[in-house]
Amino acid sequence: RVGIEINTYAEKHIFIPTENSNKLLPKEFYTDVTYDNSIKALSIELGTYNLIAYDRLSDFFNVITEGTLNISNGTLVNFLYEFSAKSEPTINEIKTNLLNSPLLYTDETGSKYNKKNIFVRNYSNEENVLYLPRLHKGHRGILDDNILPRFCGGIMGDHDTTLYSYGSKNYECNIHVGRYLEELIQNVFEIYWPVRMKELIFRMHNSRKLAIQFGSRQFNDDKIGEYKKEYLEILDIAKEENKTIKSSYYKEKANKLYRRMIKYMDNHLYFIEDFEVPFDNNLSERDLRIFKNKTKISGGFRAMKGIKSYVNALSIIKTSVKRNINPFDSIKAIFNNQLLFTN
User: Fold this and answer.
1) C-alpha 283: how far from chain center
2) Looking at residue 49, what DSSP letter applies?
3) For residue 185, with 0-12 CB atoms within 10 Å meaning exposed, 13-18 middle and 19 or more buried, which class applies?
4) Sheet-wide strand order for 169-172
5) Structural contact between residues 276 and 169, judged by C-beta atoms closer than 8 angstroms
6) How do residues 119-129 score in pLDDT, each as one tens digit?
7) 3-state SS assignment for residue 106
8) Interhelix angle for 37-44 vs 73-99, to 10°?
9) Would you say the pTM of this structure is higher than 0.90?
10) Average pLDDT, stretch 209-217?
11) pLDDT tens digit sequence for 148-188
């Protein structure tokens, strides 16, 4: 059992101007009530990462301080805006870390902004994640983000062909293709090739995991050749079997998947040629899950400033989690104007 003790105290500040006064009053003293950075940090942690609504958060502070703190929703929003502004140097540091990495995972999800569609894309690796909101999908949104146009490494995505204009190599998520194969297995009984293809993909994946345990970094050329030959043989069978599908809907789905696996064969199979290449894009899915939960709970955002501030906070918190750093400590450090994640 973990106990949390919160002590409140009050200070009175009196500012008396003199004839020689030439400094402006610090912004934190513009209002009648000021709050310690630990209170601000707790509000960011609970309001963003833990998805607690501002009404409940305000009530939480009131209850645990026995009525000493009566923080309005507007003040809680201002805490988020202040944190977002102070986080910009660290956000730029995350961008630099991502741009210098050999691999980026990326995906996007939708939300609502003032009843309009808005999109949030993650740019991630094992130690960093950056969330960026945009009003546009496709190349226009990616250009607005200005991450991929400057990135020179490999990109893992979920068959978003827009990504193929960026990076040095593009990798396909094999978990997603496995789901498409499973859909055919469950619904189309005239064909057997999806069973064989799914078995092959996950057999290669399991063999790779075993090889990694023994210190290998890739399969030898003969093994890679065997796998690719089997892959193509299954697709030769697929071409003929798909002709027997009675449902026009599933015939088109099967042919679409067949064409995808032919055209993007190398992109699906990079993972057997280089064990540093990921098998799937699950890291992006995990990173986006919290934002999807936020959208389900709140339904969207009222202002662009709000969503930008929220994703900045989320980028700091999730990067801290990835690095095994206490996110509450990171938030306090940002409020104290410290620069984080410099390596």
Assistant:
1) 8
2) I
3) middle
4) 129-134, 116-124, 103-113, 154-157, 169-172
5) no
6) 999 999 999 99
7) strand
8) 80
9) no
10) 94
11) 999 999 999 999 999 999 999 999 999 999 999 999 999 99
Nearest by Cα to 279 from 196, 205, 177, 217:
205
Could you give the 3-state DSSP secondary structure of residue 134? strand
Nearest to 308 by CA among 118, 158, 151: 118
Residue 116's pLDDT is 83
Query: What single-letter amino acid sits at 214?
Result: F
Instruction: Find out whether 154 and 104 touch, Cβ atoms under 8 Å.
Output: yes
pLDDT at 3: 45
Dist. CA 39–CA 23, nearest whole Å:
27
Q: What angle do CA 283, 271, 198 make, to 5 degrees?
A: 85
Which tokens belong to 48? 């963003």
Task: Give the dihedral of Cα atoms 113, 116, 117, 122; nearest 10 deg.
Answer: -20
The 3-state DSSP class for residue 121 equals strand
Helix %, strand %, coil % of the chain (to 5): 60, 10, 30
Q: Residue 115: what pLDDT?
A: 78
Q: Which of 45, 127, 92 is nearest to 313 (CA)?
A: 45
CB atoms within 10 A of CB 229: 10
Q: Which two tokens stand for residue 279?
A: 């098998």
Residue with tokens 């009175």: 12
Residue 39: closest CA among 73, 78, 6, 5: 6
Q: Stretch 266-281: mean pLDDT, rounded?
A: 96
CA 265 to chain CA centroid, nearest Å = 26
What type of residue is 206? Answer: N
Backbone angles phi, psi at 301, to 5 degrees: -125, 150
Which two three-digit tokens encode residue 20?
């020689």
Scan for tokens 């020179």, then name that residue.
Answer: 152
Q: What is the pLDDT of residues 48-98, one digit of tens each?
A: 888 888 899 999 999 988 888 899 999 999 999 999 999 999 999 999 999
Cβ 21 vs Cβ 290: under 8 Å: no
